[in-house]
Structures are given as structure tokens and as C-alpha cells.
User: What shape does this take?
Amino acid sequence: MLWAGLLLLLIAAISAAFLMGKNFNSPWGRLFFWRATLLLFCRHPLQGHGLGHFQGAYPLAAGEIAAPGAAPLALPLHAHNDWLEYAVEGGAASLLLVATLLAALWTGRRVPAKRHLVLALGLMFLAACWYSPLHAAPTALLFWTLFALVAAGPDGANRRISRLLPAGLCLIMLWGVGQMTARVHGHQLAGRAEAAYAHGAIKEGVGLWARAVRLAPGEGAFAYGWAWGLARIGEEETALRLARDAALIHANFDLYLLRITLLARQGRLADARAQLTWLTTLFPDLPEAQQLLSELEARPGGGVR
Assistant: This one.
């Protein structure tokens, strides 16, 4: 009955939250974030994208599922679901840790002395499905302390859970090796792509940049190189789609300027001017943005060279 009541409470809270409308913090916004996050996970389900690389990888996935011509949503600081974000960054190793947590909750409910701890941990687990409380260090410390108390004990079920930990550590080590190998290979491809661009082999460079982005999706410079090459060979729509939702990634500032320039070249001056004006409010001291804004203001009927 307790779990049924918690489930009904969660459903009621979610249903009420849908009244907020289609804004950044509404369920509609979260559904968009979750779709993009699941797409990221499907790209690298085993090794993940790397710890701390959710923000760098998110815009590429968001651009693929966004409606054509839709205004980009602001880049989220997290996926609004800790478990999805763990899966994206850590891959299979993170999923094993989440499975261990669920197993601890399931077996801990049988121990009367632990039921209040299981209840508290279960509520925090549900909260982490809708928001990201584990991004706050105090909340994360409390959560994992509760998990340790629930998982601790001499009973056979907990001993069986503890046997999974070595396997989890092995997966984490394999994930780390895979991440390092992919990143090194991505930088090698990036070097070859830059050399191809320098020799005028733009199409070859585009292919190399695309492979580099797939290996290290958190590298903003790789996405910029790919988009720049696509624009050079006439695939401006693809380049715009690639750059969508990159507005708030500071490391990808050149990528966002490229997007604005492409919008202006296509005659979409209103969109370009609006996005550039907004960008200069965030970065007022950047000469590149000021120069591009001045050029747009001086050419009301044309595009940017």
C-alpha cells in the first residue's frame, strides 16, 4: 500500500505540473531533454560520453530532434533526471550501479529496522527521476549515506549485492580505458581533418570531423570544424541543424557565430539579428560579436559576407 500511495502521489504531482505549459521547466521541456538524453545514450551505450560531458554532447542530439525552424531551448545544466544523465556519461557501468541501488531498495524493505531508511531513499530516488538533486553535494552525500545504511548488513541478500561491486569496478575501468582511447583517436582524426582543410580537401575533412565528433562528442572544436566544412560544401541546412542549441556552450562560441552567419547568408536577418543581439548581452566584450552585429546593422537588405 505504501508504494501504491507513493506512485499515486508522483502521478498527481506530474499531472499538476503539466499545467505549467511548454516552457523550460515544464514537463514538456523535460520530455524534450529526456528524448535528447536517450538519443545520446543510444549512441554510446557501453562506454558512455564521459563524466562531465553531458552539456557538451547534448546540443548535437537536441538539434536532431528539434522541429525545423524552432527556437533553440536554453542548454540545461543537467538532464533533469540523474539516472538518465548517469547512463549517458557512464554507460553500462552506471546502469549497473543503478541496478545495484534498486536491488538494495528491494531487499531492504524486508528488514523492519531499515524500512524508514528505504522510504527516505525511495523518495529521493523518485525525485532524481524528475529533477537532479544529486547535483547538489549535500543532497548527494545524504543520498549515498542512506544507500550505504540500507545496503549494509550480514544477510545473504546484501552479500549477493556486494558480489556485483567487483564487476561494476571492472566495467568502470573498461569505460575509462575506452574513453581515453576514443578521445586520443578523435584528436588524431581532428589533426588529419585540419590538414585536409589546409590542402583544400574539404569533403575529406568533413568526413574526418564527423568521425571525430562521434568519438568525442563533448569536444566543441570538433563540432565547429564539422559545421564549418558542411557550410563550405553547400550543406548549410545541415550545418545549421548541427549548430542548433549551441548558444550557451561557451567553449563553442565560434560554432554559434557560424550559425548566426549562416542565417544571415540565407536572408533570415531577423533571426540572425535577434540571436546575435541576445548573444552580445551575454558577452558584451567580445569583438567578434560586435563586428558581426555592426555588419548586420549596416546591411539591412543583405547578408553577411
